[in-house]
Amino acid sequence: MPDLPAAAARTVAVGPARRPSREVRSDWQPRVQQRAKKQGATATGIVIETRARFGFTAAPGSTDDGRMRRITQHLPPTYAARLFDAQAAGVPE
C-alpha cells in the first residue's frame, strides 16, 4: 500500500459529505422525541428531576444555610400528557 502524503492523511470530509449525516439527524431525532412523548403520555409516564435550594430554620449553634437538593418525581401518564399539552400550547412555567 503506498504511503499517503501527510496532508492527505489529515483530510477531513467537509461540505456536502457531512450533509447526509445532518439531514438524517434532523429527520430522525424529532421522530424519536415524538415517540418518547407519546409513550410517556399514554403508557409509562415520565420521570422529572430538578435541583432546588432549600433553607430551613435550625437550632442555635447549627447552620440554617440553604442547601442544594435533587428532587426526582415520577409523573403518571395523565399528568405527563397535561404537561406536554401545556408545553405545546406555550404556557409559561
Shape: elongated
Q: Residue share in helices?
A: 40-55%
The structure class reads alpha+beta
Terminal Cα span: 62 Å
Mean pLDDT rating:
79
Per DSSP, the total helix count is: 3
Radius of gyration: 25 Å
Largest sheet: 2 strands, antiparallel
What is the element string, with H for helices and E for strands? HHEEH
Describe this structure in words.
InterPro entries: Tpg (IPR058118). With about 90 residues, the chain is α+β, with helices and mostly antiparallel strands. The chain has a domain at about 30-55 and about 70-90. The protein is about 45% helix and about 20% strand. A two-stranded antiparallel ribbon has the order 1-2. Helix 2 (about 20-45) packs across helix 3 (about 75-90). The protein is elongated, with a radius of gyration of 25 Å. The mean pLDDT is about 80.
Question: Which short descriptors sum up this protein?
Answer:
single chain; 93 residues; alpha+beta; two-stranded antiparallel sheet; 3 helices; 2 strands; elongated
Give the helix/strand layout:
Layout: H1 6-9, H2 19-44, E1 46-54, E2 67-75, H3 77-89
Concise summary:
The protein is α+β, with helices and mostly antiparallel strands and 93 residues long.
